[in-house]
Amino acid sequence: MKYILIVQVCSVLHGYCYPPLSDRVIFDSWSSCVIAGSEKVIQLVNKDVDVWEKEKLMVKYWCNEQKPKNNTNESLYHRNDEVCNTGQEKYLVCCSYL
After folding, report:
1. Quick one: three-class SS letters along 20-43?
2. Ramachandran class of 24: left when φ > 0, alpha when ψ lies in -120 to 50, beta otherwise
3. 49 is in which domain, residue-wise?
4. Is 17 helix (H, G, I), strand (E, B) or coil?
């Protein structure tokens, strides 16, 4: 089975979660996906600790089984540039790192 990592940034301060995103990397095992999720959280926070501290951001992540769409290897989840360009500064900070 193949898996894809889904990451969602939430603000505890504002009680809001931004839409889930993925960088479309496909993992060969559940364990490798979970490890990548842990590493992604650390990477995201380290990019701008002050924003994470100020906005009380947190990350939820999970691994979904990769299911081909129309007999292709295309992901069901992906980074959506329209969503990233909504003008929500906090989201743009997080979105640009995925």
Report:
1. CECCCCEECCHHHHHHHHHHHHHH
2. left
3. 3-95
4. strand
Q: What is the pLDDT of residues 22-75, one digit of tens each?
A: 989 999 999 999 999 999 999 999 999 999 999 999 999 999 998 766 544 444
- What would you report as the CA-atom Rg of the chain, rounded to the nearest whole angstrom? 14
Beta strands 57-65 and 26-27, pairing class: unpaired
Tell me phi and psi for residue 13, to 5 degrees: -60, -45
The β-bridge partners of 10 are 17, 58
Instruction: Count how many domains the chain has.
Output: 1
Tell me the per-residue pLDDT of 69-94, one tens digit each, with 9 for 90 and over. 654 444 444 444 434 443 444 444 44
